[in-house]
Design goal:
It is a single chain. With 116 residues, the chain is mainly alpha-helical. Helix content is 54%, strand content 3%. It is built from two helices and two strands. A two-stranded antiparallel sheet has the order 1-2. The longest helix is centred in the middle third of the chain and has 50 residues. The relative contact order is 0.05.
Length: 116
């Protein structure tokens, strides 16, 4: 078998990318990133919104659990679906301070006052 002689081109001995190849690679990378980055920002926004909603649900659940602990006999007096005038002595009963709050709410209110 005879070997064919290798023909060398003038630029074949140098390795690496030409300027045109590098520009094409950078432009392709830019196009791909421009398509992917909005998806990441949308996912981050959705995740943040979901986290805030989960915290709000947890806070509401805590308040509802504490309200469920109050026996019905201690509920404010209502007549005909509207607050009675005598319950709050002329004031709206839902705005008056209630000394019979469940223990959890009393402790939270006390902690909040201490921090202020």
């Amino acid at each position: 078998m005879t070997r064919l002689p290798m023909v060398r081109t003038p630029g074949a001995s140098r390795e690496g990318l030409t300027l045109v190849e590098a520009l094409i690679a950078v432009s392709i990378l830019t196009i791909l990133l421009a398509a992917v980055i909005p998806a990441f920002t949308d996912a981050l926004r959705i995740n943040t919104r979901s986290e805030v909603r989960s915290q709000a649900v947890a806070a509401a659940q805590t308040v509802l659990d504490s309200l469920r602990a109050v026996p019905p006999s201690e509920w404010p007096a209502y007549a005909g679906g509207r607050p009675s005038r005598s319950a709050g002595r002329g004031r709206r009963p839902h705005l008056r301070r209630d000394r019979r709050l469940p223990g959890v709410l009393r402790r939270r209110r006390r902690l909040f006052r201490q921090r202020s």
